[in-house]
Amino acid sequence: MSGRPQDGDVGPDDRPSGVLAGFVRLVDLIETLVRHTGRAPRRIEPLPVTRGEWRMPLLCLVSPLGASSPVEVLTDRFESGTRQVPHTVIPNPADDVRSLLHQAYEGLSARRFGGPPLRFRHYGLIKRIMDVDLSKAEVEKRPRELARRLGRSLWTRPREAGQVATGSLGLVLWISAALVPMMLPLLVTGRMRWFMRQPFLAPRLAGGLFGFFAFAVRLTTPARRSEDGEQIDRLLVHAFLEDLRTAYRHRPWRPSRWRRTTYPVLLLDRIVPGDAAYDLLRLVNTVRNETGESDPLLIISHGGEVPPGGSRPEDEPHRVVRLEDVGDVFRVWHGSVTEMRQARDDTAWYVPIEIPPADLGAIQPRLPRIVPPPVPLRARPAIWIALALVPCLCAGTWYGLDQRQEHQRHERAVAIAAERRRDLIQAHCYPVNTRGRRIAVTLEQRECIGYSDSDGLVFGDNQKTVAIQKTIFEQNRYAEQGWAVRNDRPYATLVYLNTLTRLDPLADDETFVAEREGLEGVATAQYRANLEADNDPASPYVRIIVANAGQEARQADQVVRMLEQLIAGDSTVLAVVAPVDSRRSTQRALRELERIGLPTVTPTTSADGISGGSSLYLQLAAPNIDQARLVHHYVTEVLHRRGLVNYYTFGVAGRSGEQDDLYVQTLRDDLKSLFKGDYADQFWKNGTSVRDICARRFSGVVFFGGRYSEFGPFIQQVYSECSQDLPVIVADDSVGRYMANVPARATAPTNLPVIFAVKGQLASCPMLEKASDSERQYFLTDLRTQRSRCRGDNPQGIGDDPVGGWTGLSYDAVRIVAKAVKDIAGSRPTSTHWDPRQISPQLVYRQVRQSADQTPYPGVTGPIRFDRYGVAEDKRLSLLCAPNVYQVYRKGSDIPREVDRIGVGYRDDPPLRSGACHAN
Question: What pTM was estimated for this model as a whole?
Answer without folding.
Answer: 0.58
